[in-house]
Amino acid sequence: RERAKEWFHLLLPILAFTRQHLDISIHFHKRLFRERGLFRTSSVRKRSVQYDAYHEKYGEELMAYLHRIEKKAFAEGH
User: Fold this and answer.
1) Cα dihedral sign for 3, 55, 58, 35?
2) What is the SS3 assignment for 74?
3) How far is CA 52 from CA 25, 43, 77, in A?
4) In whole angstroms, what is the distance from residue 73 CA to residue 44 CA?
5) pLDDT tens readout for residues 29-55
């Protein structure tokens, strides 16, 4: 339970960003999954909320943050 709470708090920036609107979540996760090799492109159907330059920049920062915390967790055996 304590480790789950730690992960929840670590992931809060990503959760807050992606939960602001379903379209932002779709754009972010499509990019994340493309980066991880699950999708060939980050293309999405036309959305009501566009993923603008701010979203792109902050989304990239959050993906880098996610990679850092995952790398640290795997190195520690969590």
Assistant:
1) positive
2) helix
3) 13, 14, 37
4) 31
5) 999 999 999 999 999 999 899 999 999
DSSP 3-70: HHHHHHHHHHHHHHHHTS-HHHHHHHHHHHHHHTTS-S-------SS---HHHHHHHHHHHHHHHHHH
Nearest to 17 by CA among 31, 35, 3: 31
Share of the chain above pLDDT 70, in %: 99
Torsion from C-alpha of 69, 77, 38, 18, nearest 10 degrees: -30
